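hi! just following up on the protien thing from before. the input was this:
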Amino acid sequence: MAKSNLVQRVLSAAVFGPVLLVLFWVGGYGLLALWCGVVCVGVWEFYRLLSRKGLHPWMGFGIFATLVWCALAFWVGLDAFALFFLCLLLLLFCLALFDSSDHRLLNAGGTLLGVLYVGFLGSFVLIVRDALPLSASEHGRGAVLILLGIWANDVMAYFFGRWFGRWRPFPGISPGKTEAGFVGGLLSALLVVGVGAHIFGLFNASQSLVLGLLIGVGAPLGDLVESMIKRTMDVKDTSELIPGHGGVLDRFDSLFFVFPLVYLFFFLL
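and the predicted 3d structure came back as:
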């Protein structure tokens, strides 16, 4: 990575990082507004990528459905998801009847995929933030700890990969990903979560260990999936919205996988 790009990344993180930490800590309507903005831009970026391959996903409908999904996650929770998905699927098939292109089903499928990838997976940020197995006063600290673990994973994966990386297991998807980067990111996530849980008085030792492992695995998985999408669409970044980082999907892809995995661990297993 060029020095100027690294400086841009650091400056952007210095500006936006504290805002994210405060809103994740406080929660409520501030976090909802922020996250609705994130998913709205994210699904827009996703549909722009699809359009590069000749598809025409229904942008307005997809953005609206994504926002509704996150609103339901915030106010109702998972109980409303099955009914909403049923309505979403029926509406998409109905809209396909009025699409005059030769790719109406592909357009419907692309629209649905954007809602699921950005809206459904992204909605778990709002669900997990207020449903962690902690007291109400500790929810903010728990959400911030997860966010710090993701950032530690991303930063140290980059540096460990540059310093020690030799084997590149996904050259066709993300040639910069190395075994050393994965190990360095995983160890960093475990360290930050372990120390942070002790300082904040959150989680027991086994919960902290599993949480660190979920972040260490989920963050690179989310990044790889987003890299796969970009490779398929022949782009480097999903947009240029965030200086040094690219687009919203480039910056928040890890969260789309980590928070659903955290939900699976704490609330289903």
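The mean pLDDT is 90.
The radius of gyration is 19 Å.
cheers
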